[in-house]
Amino acid sequence: MSPTDDAQHLIVLPERDTAEELADELEAEGLADVRVVREALAGEDDSEAHEWAVYVRTPSDRAYAVRFQALAAVHDGWYDPDPHD
After folding, report:
1. Which H or E element spans position 85?
2. 10 Å Cβ neighbour count for 5?
3. How far apart are CA 34 and CA 48, in angstroms?
4. Closest-CA residue to 78 (of 7, 9, 20)
5. Any idea what DSSP says for residue 66?
6. What DSSP character marks residue 1?
7. Residue 52's closest CA among 41, 73, 36?
8. Hey, is 68 helix, strand or coil?
9. Would the pTM count as exceeding 0.85?
10. CA-CA distance, 52 to 32, in Å (whole number)?
11. Do 15 and 51 form a contact (C-beta atoms < 8 A)?
12. CA–CA separation, 82 vs 85, rounded Å?
């Protein structure tokens, strides 16, 4: 997969355990570039105000974005369709 035919996604979740479980599920499905990262909320300096995010790189297919948006909503999180590393 070359950089021109893939997409980046960020699924932001309130709980670390949930983020790690989701990352494990996505890796088990065969997605190779999946990682859990700590995401600072805009305007927050307090380290307790950070949420957990699952960064995923997938083939460029809108179906992934739709699915990840739904997964974020189910887990009281949100989806960023255009994350920057």
Report:
1. none
2. 9
3. 24
4. 9
5. H
6. -
7. 36
8. helix
9. no
10. 19
11. no
12. 10
Distances (CA, A) of 40 to 9, 18, 37, 44, 51: 16, 17, 10, 7, 6
More confident: 35 or 42: 35
What's the whole-number average pLDDT of the chain?
Answer: 86
What is the full DSSP assignment across 3-30? GGGEEEEEEEES-HHHHHHHHHHHHHTT
**10: confidence class by pLDDT, cuts 50, 70, 90:** very high
User: How many alpha carbons lie under 13 Å from residue 23 in its C-beta half-sphere?
Assistant: 20
| 83 contacts 55 by C-beta, under 8 angstroms | yes
Block residue for tokens 């893939």: 6
Sign of dihedral through CA atoms 15, 37, 83, 7?
Answer: negative
